[in-house]
Amino acid sequence: MQGACLLLLLGLRLQLSLSLVPVEEEDPAFWNRQAAQALDVAKKLQPIQTAAKNVILFLGDGMGVSTVTAARILKGQMDGKLGPETPLAMDQFPYVALSKTYNVDRDVPDSAGTTTAYLCGVKTRMKVIGVSAAARYNQCNTTRGNEVTSVLNRAKKAGKSVGVVTTTRVQHASPAGAYAHTVNRNWYSDAQMSAGAKKEGCQDIATQMVYNMDIDVILGGGRRYMFPERTPDPEYPRNGRQNGVRKDKRNLVQEWQDKHQGAQYVWNRTALLQAANDSSVTHLMGLFEPGDMTYDIYRDHTNDPSLEEMTEAAVRVLSRNPRGFFLFVEGGRIDHGHHENIAYRALTETVMFDNAIAKASQLTSEADTLTLVTADHSHVFTFGGYPLRGTSIFGLADGKANDGKSYTSLLYGNGPGFRLYWGLRPDVDEIESMGPNYKQQATVPLWSETHAGEDVAVFARGPWAHLMHGVQEQTFVAHVMAFAACVEPYTTDCHLQPPTIPMDTAHQAACPSSLALLVGILLQLLVPALH
Ligand SMILES: [Zn+2]
Predict the structure, then answer these.
(1) Which of 4, 55, 83, 217 has the fewest CB atoms within 10 Å, i.e. is most exposed?
(2) Helix, strand or coil for residue 350?
(3) DSSP single-letter state for residue 441
(4) What confidence score (pLDDT) does residue 19 get?
(5) Are 389 and 20 in contact (CB under 8 A)?
(6) Hey, what's the signal peptide range on this chain (predicted)?
(7) Furthest-apart CA pair in the chain: how many Å?
C-alpha cells in the first residue's frame, strides 16, 4: 500500500474516532460468548506428534511484543476496523513461548549472535555468525574449529529442500545464520574484509552462501556483493554507486548457476513469478536490489516482489520435494524502521511480514508443517499514553504532558528522534505524527536507536508446536525445529511417525479415512492446482 493511501485511510479512521466503543462490547454477554468460544477451541487443542515434513521459520527482525501489538492495531485499522481486537495471522497460532534473546557477552543482543542461537541452537557473542562463543569477533584465525551448523544445513543433509527469503540483502546477519560461519557479520563480500582476514583464509559471506551448502531457493536483496567491482547493476545501470563491489572479480551468480542444473537467476518480479511456476526450475536465486530491498511503502510494485510474493514463490518451488523442506523467511526491515525511529516504516513492514505468514498458512497444512514466528530481539519502542480506541496508531496520546504539549502514543527510549528546540521538547500535532517520515520522539539522542533486551514471543503451529511453551533460551527454537523434523542431532533417537497426510503436496489438508483419501486423489486428478 502506498504511504499516502494509508495515511488517508488512517485519517478517515481518525475522524470517526472519538472514543469509539462498539455497542455490543457494552454487553457482558458479548465477552462471555467470545471467551466461551476461545475456551472451546482451547479445550479441543490436540498436540500433533508426528514428524514435521516441512518447517518454516518466520523471523521478524526486531519484532518485539510492543511492535506486534502496534502492528495488530495498524493492520486492523488498514482493514477498516478499530484495531486492537483484530487478530494478526501470527495471533492465530495456537502455542506461544517467550524466548530469552541475550548474547553470551551482551544482555541486549544483535542479529548475528541471535541468528546463531535460533538457527544453529548455540548461543554466541555479538557480531559473529555460525561460530560458537569460543571464536572472537574479527579474529579470522578463531573461526576454524568453532563452526556450528544451522538447522537449514542439517535439513538439507536429511534430503529436504531448503530456502532463504528476506527483505534485506541475503548476506545480512539473520539469513547468513542459515549458511555462513564468520567472525565478522559485515564481511558481505571480499571488499568489506581486511587484507589480513583474507590472507588468513577467511571467506566473505556471499562466497559462503554459494559454496558452503546447496540452498535451493535464495530470495532477497544483495546483488552488489555477487558481482565484480564496476559491474553495472541491471536495474540502475547509470548509477555507479549500485555497481558490483567484488575485488576478486568473481561473478558468484554465474558460479552458482554453473553448480546446479536447472538453476535460474532472476532480478525482477515478473521473472520471479514465471520461474516459480516453471517446474524445470530446481534452484532459484532472486536478488531484487543491489543492497537491502526497499521498504514496502516505497517498493516499485511492478519491478520488485513483496515478501508475501517471495514467500509464495519459495513454498511453491520447495514443496516439489516429496521429502519436504525447510524455509527461513525474514521480515528484515522492521528492525531498520525502528533504528531510524520511524514507527511508520517498522509497523508497515510488520504488517507485510504478517501477510507473508498468512499466505504460507494458506499454502501449507498444519498437519505436516511446523511454522514458527519469532523475533531475534526487541527494540526500545513503546506504546502508551491511554490513546482513545480507534485513534490512529500513529496518533496522539490522550491529554497533554507536564510541559503542556501533546505527545504520541508511540515513543522510543533512544535514537535519532530526540529533539530539543531552544532547550525544550517540540510539540507535535496529529497531521505531523501520522506522516510516513515522522520520527517519534526519543529520550536519549543516538544516531541509531538500539535494540532492547526483553524477551520476544515465539508463536507456533503444526507438529510439535506444543513444545513451544514457557520461558526458553532462544536456542530452543533451533532444537524444536530439528527434533520435529527428525534432523541432526535428533535423527538416531527419532521415532516419530510420518505425518498423517496421504498426499505429498504441501498444501493439502490431512484426510484420515481411506474414503477421504480416495476423494483426495480424485480431486487431485480433477483439480491440478487448488491454489
Ligand atoms: Zn538492528
Answers:
(1) 4
(2) helix
(3) P
(4) 61
(5) yes
(6) 1-19
(7) 77
CA atoms 303, 305, 306, 307: torsion sign: negative
Q: Which helix (H) or strand (E) holds 444?
A: strand 442-445
pLDDT score recorded for residue 505: 43
C-alpha cell at 235: 536495474
Task: Tell how far the Cα of 66 is from the centroid of ligand 1, in angstroms.
Answer: 16
111 catalytic per annotation: yes
Cα(291) to ligand 1 centroid in Å equals 16
In the numeric block, which cell numbers belong to residue 474? 532462544
Sorted by sequence, the CB contacts under 8 Å of residue 292 that are 6+ apart come out as 167, 168, 169, 172, 221, 222, 332, 333, 336
Q: Dig out the grid coordinates for 299 from the structure.
A: 517498493
Burial class of residue 15 in the structure, from the number of CB atoms within 10 Å of its CB (0-12 exposed, 13-18 middle, 19+ buried)? exposed
Residues in the chain: 531
Read off the pTM: 0.91
* 3-state class (DSSP) for residue 136: coil
Nearest Cα to Cα of residue 358 among 46, 48, 75: 75
Cα 378 to ligand 1 centre (Å):
9
C-alpha 219/C-alpha 305 separation (Å) is: 10
Q: Beta strand pairing status for 369-375 and 54-60?
A: parallel
CB 183 within 8 A of CB 250: no
Question: What residues flank ion ligand 1 with Cβ within 5 A?
Answer: 335
Cell numbers at 288, concatenated = 531484487
Nearest residue to 517 (alpha-carbon basis) of 528, 503, 499: 503
What does the block give as the cell for 487? 534432523
Q: Which residues of the chain have pLDDT under 50?
A: 1-17, 502, 504-531
The per-residue pLDDT for 498 is 80
> Residue 171 and residue 188: Cα distance in Å, rounded?
6
Give the separation between CA 271 and CA 449, rounded to whole angstroms: 37
Q: What one-character DSSP code corresponds to residue 147?
A: B
| 489 CA distance to ligand 1 middle (Å) | 30
Distances 500 to 116, 129, 158, 465, 496 between C-alpha atoms, Å? 32, 37, 20, 16, 11
Cα torsion through 238, 241, 242, 248, rounded to 10: 120
Whole-Å CA distances, 356 to 89, 201, 372: 9, 39, 13
Residue 95 forms beta bridges with which residues? 460
For 35, 118, 316, 428, 517, the CA distances from 46, given in Å and listed in that order, are 19, 26, 28, 50, 22
> What's residue 493's pLDDT?
66
Distances (CA, A) of 113 to 133, 336, 369: 9, 17, 27
Backbone dihedral angles phi then psi of residue 246, each to the nearest 5 degrees: -70, 130
The pLDDT value recorded for residue 494 is: 73
